Every structure is written in C-alpha cells, then in structure tokens.
Amino acid sequence: MKKITLLAYSFGVILLSCKENKAPEQAVNNKPTNTAVAESNEVQLTPEQLKAAGLEIQPVTTRDMYTVLKVNGVVDVPPQNIVSVSMPMGGYLKSMQLLPGMQVNKGQVMAVLEDPQYIQLQQDYLVAKSKLRYLEADFIRQKELNESKANSDKVFQQVRSEYEAQKVLLSALREKLQLINIHPDKLTDGNITRSVAIYAPISGYVSKVNANPGKYVGPTDVLFELINPADLHLNLTVFEKDMANLAPGQKVVCYANNNGEKYAATIHLITHNIDENRAGEVHCHFEKFDKRLLPGMFMNAEIALNNASVNALPNDAVVKWKNKTYVFVATGADKFTMTPVETGTSNDGYTEIKTALADKKIVTRNAYTLLMKMKNNEEE
C-alpha cells in the first residue's frame, strides 16, 4: 500500500509540473498582435507640431440656419416674351440678313417680301376709295331730294345701302393693308409697290430663322422667332412630396454647371398641378439680370425652406472617417479627442451640430490635420 501511495504522489507532481511549463507558452502565444490593438481616439502634439498645425479652437455657436431643398431646372422666358414672326398674306422672301443670335431693335426691318397679291390689294383699296367718294356725293344729293320729296324713299334707301356697303369694304381693305405694313393714308396711284417689309415687333434676339431668300412662305409659316431676355426667370422642377414646403417669397440660390457663380432668386409662382412625372413647376425671378444667363440653360438650385436657431460649427471643424462624422474636442493645451457627432443641415460655411457639446472647446480649423496625425500614429 505504501508503494502504491508513493507512486500516485509522484505521478501527480509530474502532471502539475507539465501544466506549469505550458502556461508561459500559452501566455506568449495569446499575446495580442498589432492588428488587434484598439484604435485610439486621442492625439497629442508637440509644441512644434502645434505651432505648425495652425489650429483654431472655439466653442459651439448658435446660428440661424435653414433646411435646403436641392432641385434643378432651366432658365426660361415668359410666353409673352417669345414672338413668332410671320406674314399674314404670304409671299416670296426677297431679302433677309438675319442669323440666329443676332440682336434686333423694335421697328427694325427684318425681311422684305414680294407678291402680286400685294399689288392687287393696293389697287382694290384705291378703286374702293374713289368709288366711295362718288357714292358719298350721290348719297348727300339723294338725301336732299328725299327730304324735299323729289324722289322716292326706295331710291334713297338703295343709294344709302350702297354707300354704307362701300364704307365697310374700304375699311376692310384698309385693315388688310395695315396687316402687310402698308400705310393706307400714304398710298396713292403713284406709289403702288409689289414689295412689303416685315418689322421687328419687339427688341431682342433672333432665336430661329426658318426661311431663306426666294422661298415662298404661307400665312401660317413662321419666318423668325424673337426672344426678349429682359424678363428671364428660373423654371424649377420640384417633386410633389416637396411642393407643400414651398411658398412665394422663399429665397433661392442657383448656379450653372459651366461656372461656379451663384445667382440669387425668389420664388414668384407655384403651379397648382402635378405632371405625369409626379412633379410641378416653380417659377422664380432673378434678383439681378445677367446677360450670361441664356434661355434653356440648365441650372442647379437650392431653396431655403425654413429658418431655426441651432448649434453650429464651421465646416472645417467637421471630419469624416469610415462613413462617420467627428469633431476634435480640446482636452488640454496639446491634447485632442476625436468625438463622434450627429450633424444636420449645412449652409453659409457652417454645419448644424445636433450632439450636445456645451462648454467644450472644439477645433474649428485644420481639423483634418489632427485626423491624419492620429492615423499615422496608429500605423507606426
């Protein structure tokens, strides 16, 4: 029995010794590697680094900020500023010196047309005018005879009917002459012309030229299209879900893709219908005319929806890392902690901060310098 007890005791000592020898090895093997080290959210700068960084530290400020609705649209002109020019009686285009983009002034000759029907119309007018003088004299004579009972009422009524019908005919011919820009009062048998001129009805720019010399144009053919850019407006497309947030008078900032210059505008009119694309039109007036704005130009726009007093920081204070937003809080003269924050709207160089940061000093300039310094330290 003593031998068995001694043997069991010796075997237990050997097992315990083996376990103690393996423990250090396991501890060494389980030591965390560099890839498992938790990322630090603090960074400390040396005096030299702090001076070179050019940091600015300020507390969170309160600012009046608004929510921005981003939409797009085109520069447009109202329908009354787009004029289609045609010749009511048609004719052959004799001469024309216009090209799209050329500027014209109101009353300027745009083209000259000629046609035999212009001659016939002038002839009809002069003949009708001469006949009216004869009928007028006959009417006065027959009226005096009728008053003295020297002729019958039937004869007088017939003369009066012819006289009044001739007046109507002359008035109609007069209007036709004016349609083709011939002044009836200046027309005589010595200045009958086969040509008529087309004058610019407004001042503006030629946007379309649809005819060339020698071509016959009908009464319904549009020869030219003029645009008066004096009343340019911005026509925005807004989806129906956002229409309820808009109202006349709201401020709009718009800009084109070809240059970064921004233009101020104001909502003037909102349409009361939604199209097949589930969107409506919003008409805005520019606060200042710029000749570089052309009808049809595509524009991006930002509409200020509401105004509220919120906590905000300069845009330079906010950094992004791995799809999250942070700011650096100064915890000492040379120590800074990267703190996650929830942001809101951004405009005028400031970003709304929804996270409570009261009484904390925030790095508001060159915050990305601290972020790069922190990530470089983690890699070393």
TrEMBL record:
Belongs to the membrane fusion protein (MFP) (TC 8.A.1) family. InterPro entries: BSH_CzcB-like, CzcB_C, MFP_Cation_Efflux, RND_pump_MFP. This is Cobalt-zinc-cadmium efflux system membrane fusion protein. The lineage of its organism: Bacteria, Pseudomonadati, Bacteroidota, Chitinophagia, Chitinophagales. Residues 313-370 form the CzcB-like C-terminal circularly permuted SH3-like domain. Signal peptide: none annotated. GO terms for biological process: copper ion export; plasma membrane copper ion transport. It comes from the Bacteria. Keywords: Transport. PANTHER family: CATION EFFLUX SYSTEM PROTEIN CUSB, SLR6042 PROTEIN. Pfam families: BSH_CzcB (PF25973), CzcB_C (PF25975). It comes from Chitinophaga polysaccharea. GO terms for cellular component: cell envelope; membrane. GO terms for molecular function: transmembrane transporter activity. Residues 82-226 form the CzcB-like barrel-sandwich hybrid domain. Transmembrane segments: none annotated.
